[in-house]
Every structure is written in structure tokens, then in C-alpha cells.
Amino acid sequence: MRRGELCGLRWRDVDLLLGVVTIARTRVVADTVLESVPKTRAGERKLALDDDTLAAIQAWRRNQAEERLRMGSGWRDHGLVFVDEAGEPPHPETISRWWREAVARAGVPAIRLHDARHTAATVMLRAGVPVKVVSQRLGHADVAVTMRVYQHVTAQG
């Protein structure tokens, strides 16, 4: 997912029973933080979650419920998955900072949040996942976009 898609992800778009998220909103930075639908129809998509990701989201949901109880009437329910301890949606750059902090804690080489998206695409392509499937998962408007960005991977066969 793109950072804006993570920032716009709502709990109602997360199906914990089926292990699927629906990308239907974004929160991006222009002059201010703007909420909208994805840029293209291809950006609106459903993503199946692997077991580890599903478990992490379930743990986040429990953590968020505990924070809600601690905050009481001070909690602001925006319906978003990624909020701070008071229920407020963070600035999208804060999501990037959280990512950098998590990478540092993990003791792995520093990469940007968007680099994780590229890594996922590269791993899928190298594993033989069809380009069309990777393109749909990334929310690219056209397979040609995926081919252009990842031609170095697909050329390796």
C-alpha cells in the first residue's frame, strides 16, 4: 500500500474474518492534508492479507481498543486504522517517521516506507507472480506502468 492509502484506511474497510482490506480512501499532503478516493479506479482494490499481517492488524485493533478505554471521552473516533493514542489521525509524515523508527528498532538497513512497496513488488515478480496480478495489487492504472517501473526485475526472468 502507498502511504496515503495507509493513512486513509478505515476499520470498516478491514475484514478480519476474511483477511481482506479494501483500499477506498487516501489521506495525502498537498498544502494541507486532504482525504479523497484513490486517483484512479485501479487504486480502489481489495488486498488479501497474509497470516502475519492479519495477526499484526488484529493486535493493533486490540491496542487501539485499550487506548480508547484509557482515553475515555477524550478519544476521537475517526474510524481510521492508523491513529494516535487519542484517536487522532496523524499527519502522513508521522506514518513515515513511525516507519523509520520501527526500521531502526529492528536493526536492519534503513529504507523508506515506499521502498517496502517496491520490495514487495520485486519479490512477487521474482517469485513468478504474473505482472497483471502485481499491477492490480499495487493499484497501478495499467500493466504498462508496472512494466516500466519494474522492467529491470522482469528482464531478469
Structural notes for this entry:
The chain is mostly helical and 157 residues long. The protein has two domains: 3-110, Intergrase catalytic core (hpI Integrase, Chain A), CATH 1.10.443.10; 112-157. The chain is built from seven helices and five strands; from the N terminus they run αβββββαααααα. It has helices at 3-8, 51-71, 92-106, 113-126, 131-138, 143-149, 151-154; strands spanning 14-15, 20-23, 26-29, 33-36, 45-48. The strands form two sheets. It has a three-stranded antiparallel beta sheet, with no helix packed on it. Strands 3-4 form a two-stranded antiparallel ribbon. A hairpin with a 3-residue loop joins β3 (26-29) and β4. α5 crosses α6 (143-149). The longest helix is centred in the middle third of the chain and has 21 residues, at 51-71. It is globular, with a radius of gyration of 17 Å. The two termini are 25 Å apart. The mean pLDDT is 91.
